Amino acid sequence: MYKGGKIIASLIIFVAFLTFPFFYNMGKVNAGPENLDSNIKLTANTQCVEPASFMRANHMQLLNDWRQAYVRDGKTVYTNSQGKKFEINLDTCIKCHSTGAASNTAGVSNPALNTTGSSKTLASNSDQFCVSCHNYASVELTCWSCHSEPGGATK
Amino acid sequence: MSINRRQFLRRAGIVTALGLGGSFVINAAGSKLAEAAAESTYGTSTQGLAAKHWAMVVDMSKFKSKDDFKRVSQACDLIHNVPDIGNTKDEIKWIWEDDYEHTFSGGENEYLTESFKELPFVVMCNHCENPPCVKACPTGATFKRPDGIVDMDYHRCIGCRFCMGACPFSARSFNFRNPRPFIKENNPDYPTRTQGVVEKCIFCVERLAKGQKPACVEVSKGGLIFGDLDDPNSEVRKIISSKFTIRRKAELGTQPSVYYLVGGGEHA
Amino acid sequence: MLEKALTGSKKYWAWVFCLLAVIAVGVLAYLRQYSYGLGLTGMSRDVTWGLYIAQFTFLVGIAASAVMLVTPYYLHDFKKFGKMVILGEFLAIAAIIMCILFIFVDVGQPMRILNVLLYPQLHSVMFYDMCVLCGYLAINFIVGWTTIGAERKGTPSPKWVKPIIYLSIPWAFSIHTVTAFLYAGLPGRHFWLTAIMAARFLASAFAAGPSLLILLCLIVRKVSKFDPDPPGVGAIQSLVKIIRYAMIANVFFYICEVFTAFYSGLPEEMAPFKYAFVGLDGHASLVPFMWTATVLAFLGIALLIFPTRKNSVLLPIALISVFLANWIDKGIVLILAGFVPNSFGRVTEYFPSGNEIAIVLGVYAIGMLVLTIFYKVAISVREQNL
User: Fold this and answer.
1) Scanning every residue of chain A, which has its alpha carbon at the shortest distance from the alpha carbon of B41?
2) Which of B28, B48, C110, C300 is the most buried (most CB within 10 A)?
3) What residues of chain C score a pLDDT lower than 70?
């Protein structure tokens, strides 16, 4: 083969580069997210702003719509498909989705902050409702670089 | 059918492009479905304060001691988690004081006594009717609300700082670095900002929504008067229509909504 | 065709690796800035744009200047520029890439930069600037690559390129006009609030861009067998005429600005000029730059007017003078003096940080690398056709 050595060497480098993420993460296999219900403060029969199945699939869209409505349109009240009203605020989420056990830099609990210190590992801490899925899916959250929860509203 | 390498590559490229484009369409359709499933609505709270044109009058006769100024800016800083960076290069300011000579620069009167030139004034975002910052913003992160407030959407700001070049009042600050370590007392009720976005006074839109007046107005002991300029019976309107008030750089045509009542004495 | 950039002399590879080293330093500096924030630069609450945006502004001009070759060659059938036109187009590509990079490194939240496309604001000049810059990059890439590709095969350029070439002419004017409008439409910045800003931008671009291009041609002539201006053609001397008039127009426009500011006596109009030329309130960091630019501008014009323009030693000196004068004016002073004094009438100066300069050099090195690769391709094609 013409310039065979170079081609094969380049191919090896290319394949190594391509598969680097797999080797890098070898042995660090994450278990799936834990039983999320245990991370919810209120009783199991309390319903979220929308049905859990809807939230599971669309929470990001809903959060985006809430943000749009609150920040840009001055709308502060959300009426869900069953006619129930909610205040548009991250606190509304946090009231349930946090046990308030761990605390963030601001001295308040933060359901999305991995407080165990080791990044990118699944947290078994019960206070990490957002984090347990998001770490698993490797989708980094930026909410908490500004918001600090849960609310002083309840303080 | 035989195709050569070049044709293959070209066709592969086209198929990839179509695939990417198609996935956008599918995503868009998916979110439509989700919206339809929810059948939810968004509304405003009944307790919120509403107006057609929020405006502020600064009654300078009520600002006498250093404490009068401090109280106002501290209330704002505390509520909005405004960091104290500690140097003028990176500092963040929402409402602060500056002297007469510089606040109303351009109208130099060399015979003014030093004490007059150094007279402190309260300055903040002027919430212009024709805000140059809104015009400049390439993403709509700075926008004007129907009630006249020039608001910020920190989620959308890309930090290009075109608005800061456009603002004739230096009312805007940029987070040159992560502000969190510089916030002395964190107010968990209000978000902090993140590194790389622009911020400024927003006339406390979050408090207006809850039926409260802006934080600075509340602690100003009558020095700051806030109300609807569109309402002929409002206090701000009465003062502005019958007393001598001045605005910063009115000649630029941005129509600031912050009016300074000087030598006012008793009003309305 | 790109494979032609993969073979070259030892000197070629040494140059490429030098550039890669500078780029690596720039990338590291950028990573630092990315994690710390723009506080790592010299920019402040008062001077919110610094070297990055200034370089962007200057380089838009360099990109636009390709039109000074394209228009005569394609529109007026001015055959002399036949061999140089491709170098102009490739220079434009490199310049636009640098422009985009300078915007990118200047942004506080780079991950969100596509918000400009996601939420287009039709009242923001920056939106239009992004559109015209990307369009101009595409146009030059298509035109340059197609024409040199056709040349390699020894065939005439395909017919469909012609309309795109014609489109590139108004487009080149638009990129610099829109960039000028970024500044000229802001009510509070007196140094920029001037109707001849766009005209000034174009004049300075058509002086600085072709100057750089001729210097590049002289280098190409030295390092390769391809001569962009073979003996007897006189393409360079024709371009020199364009530079000369553009530079005279540029200086004239500047004098108009100075006259308006000082004859009217408006304090806010005069302050930035005072800051740039004599210093203000004891701050004078731009003064040496501005006077250097002034001297170089007149020196450049003088050398290009008289027969000295044909002297092979003095010509490069003249071109470097013109180029540097414009770079100081647009790549440093224009942006900074617009912010100093600030809107409170106070003077806050700006000094770039080391990290910032490393990023600037890194971006320039990327531009030069792109330019080197494109020029290598063009030169190889030309050498093969000799």
Assistant:
1) A79
2) C300
3) none
User: How many angstroms separate the CA atoms of B268 and C257, rounded?
Assistant: 48
Q: Give the model's confidence band at A124: pLDDT under 50 very low, under 70 low, under 90 confident, else very high.
A: very low
Rg (Cα) of chain C, in Å, rounded?
A: 21
> Above 60 in pLDDT, residue B69?
yes
**Structure tokens, C65:** 């200047």
Q: How far is C179 from chain B (nearest CA, A)?
A: 13
Q: CA C123 → CA A135, B136, B148, C23, C132, distances in Å?
A: 40, 7, 18, 36, 15
Q: How many CA atoms lie within 13 A of C135 on its CB side?
A: 19
In sequence order, what are the residues at sequence separation of 6 or more whose Cβ sits closer than 8 angstroms to the Cβ of residue B53? B129, B147, B148, B228, B229, B230, B257
* Cβ proximity of C178 and C125 under 8 Å: yes
pLDDT at residue A103 greater than cutoff 50: no
Q: Cα separations (Å) of C159 from C155, C156, C200?
A: 11, 9, 35
Residue of B nearest to A145 (CA): B194
User: Do the chains contact at B186 and A106, CB–CB below 8 Å?
Assistant: yes
The closest alpha carbon to B155, from B207, B204, B191, belongs to B191
Which C residues in the span 269-328 are in contact with B, Cβ-Cβ below 8 Å?
none
In chain C, what are the helix, strand and coil shares in percent, each to the nearest 5? 75, 0, 25
User: How large is the greatest C-alpha to C-alpha distance in chain A, in angstroms?
Assistant: 75
Q: What is the pLDDT of residues C346-362, one digit of tens each?
A: 999 999 999 999 999 99
Lowest mean pLDDT among A55-69, B244-258, C29-43, C283-297: A55-69
Structure tokens at A137: 């899916």
Q: In the block, which residue shows the tokens 């380089």?
A: C59
* B99 interfacial to chain C (CB closer than 8 Å): no
Place of tokens 């605005």: B247
Q: In whole angstroms, how far apart are CA B88 and each of A27, B161, C43, C46?
A: 49, 17, 11, 9
| C251 neighbors C200 (Cβ within 8 angstroms) | no
- Tell me how far apart the alpha carbons of residues B131 and B85 are, in angstroms, rounded to a whole number: 27
Name the residue type at position A109: S
Q: Quick one: how far is CA C121 from the chain centroid?
A: 26
Interchain contact C262–B (C-beta under 8 A): no
Minimal Cα–Cα distance from A151 to chain B, Å?
Answer: 6
If we measure between CA atoms, which residue out of B117, B96, B148, B130 comes closest to residue B251? Answer: B130
Query: Which residues of B, range 184-213, sit inside 8 Å of A by Cβ?
Result: 186-189, 191-194, 205, 209
Q: What is chain A's Cα-based Rg?
A: 21
CB C346 within 8 A of CB C268: no
The size of the A-B interface in CB pairs under 8 A is 82
pTM score of the predicted model: 0.88
Neighbours of chain B (3+ CB pairs under 8 A): A, C
Q: How far apart are CA C192 and CA B192, in angstroms?
A: 34
Running DSSP on this structure, what letter comes out for residue C73? I
Please indicate if any CB of chain B lies within 8 Å of the CB of A53: no
Which residues of B fall within a CB distance of 8 Å from A77? 42-45
Strand order across the A85-87 sheet = A85-87, A77-79, B41-43
Sign of torsion, CA C259 C264 C267 C268?
A: negative
Closest Cα in chain B to C184:
B166
The reply to whether C43 touches chain B by the CB within 8 Å rule is yes
